[in-house]
Design a protein that fits this description.
The chain has 269 residues and is mainly alpha-helical. It contains 13 helices and no strands. The chain starts with a helix and ends in a 5-residue tail after the last helix. The model has no long low-confidence stretch (mean pLDDT 80).
Length: 269
């Protein structure tokens, strides 16, 4: 394949991937008098920023963004804390059936959300956490930790064991070894886990819609899907989606290489 053919193929793939986002942007700039189903679908007849202005002045949208950031932050912290400790034990301690445990974590990560939904819903109901953001702060880490443990375990296994032996000789415990030796080296894996956790929180609708009933307590995707769908004027909905997804897109754009390096450690030898 020639260089021109490769460039043409990459441009075509880029256009194919960006076309849905561009269409969402066009719809978000259309007013009520410019129906989506008629006219030019790729260009607004009379572009307006009214939807974005309404969003920025909406207290409900602010609640959704704040809840999403809070839930994402707690999810990242819990997931990293649990997965780093579990990965350390599985990689450096003599844990019985350690390899089988890692494979079990990996298999759990592959399970579809529908399989986990019923037991999680019953658990949240018994804990009286339905309609509380705390339900999502518990649910999302349960989805992230298996993947995070697998990635962190793979990264730790790729490090020289002499690092741990030297830290032990210096009298460092598990927490000190993680903090001062392993985590500074594992920044790509930490970035991969963090971005994965953010993607889980920002993209989820099932749990946010089911566990949260009050509009002020839900996350961005849950609020948009449950309380803000207007088929007559979808511009407001698409504007909210674009504003909510912009931080995730920027993070992925700036840390794509780091994310790829972190995922590159995710293999089982």
């Amino acid at each position: 394949m020639t260089r021109a053919a490769r460039a043409a193929f990459l441009v075509a793939m880029l256009g194919f991937c960006l076309a849905p986002i561009y269409w969402e942007l066009v719809v978000s700039l259309k007013g009520v008098e410019d129906p989506v189903g008629s006219g030019n679908p790729w260009w607004p007849e009379a572009a307006t920023l009214a939807h974005y202005g309404a969003l920025l002045h909406s207290s409900l949208f602010g609640h959704w963004v704040l809840n999403t950031v809070l839930v994402a932050g707690v999810t990242i912290l819990l997931s990293l804390a649990c997965s780093c400790l579990a990965a350390f034990a599985l990689a450096f301690l003599d844990v019985p059936l350690g390899r089988g445990i890692v494979l079990a974590f990996f298999a759990t990560y592959l399970l579809p959300q529908g399989v986990l939904f019923v037991p999680l819903a019953r658990l949240m109901a018994r804990l009286h956490l339905i309609d509380s953001p705390v339900a999502l702060m518990i649910t999302y880490p349960s989805l992230v930790i298996p993947f995070a443990t697998w990635v962190m375990w793979s990264f730790f296994r790729s490090l020289p064991p002499e690092l741990i032996d030297h830290a032990r000789l210096e009298g460092a415990g598990v927490v000190a070894t993680l903090r001062h030796v392993l985590l500074p080296l594992a920044l790509p894996a930490v970035a991969a886990v963090s971005l994965f956790a953010i993607a889980v929180v920002f993209n989820d609708f099932l749990y946010a819609f089911t566990f949260i009933g009050h509009p002020e307590n839900t996350t961005l995707m849950g609020g948009i899907g449950a309380f803000n769908v207007d088929l007559q004027d979808p511009g407001f909905t698409f504007a909210a989606i674009l504003l909510g997804g912009a931080p995730v897109a920027l993070l992925c754009a700036f840390f794509a290489d780091t994310y790829a390096r972190g995922l590159g450690t995710g293999f089982i030898d």
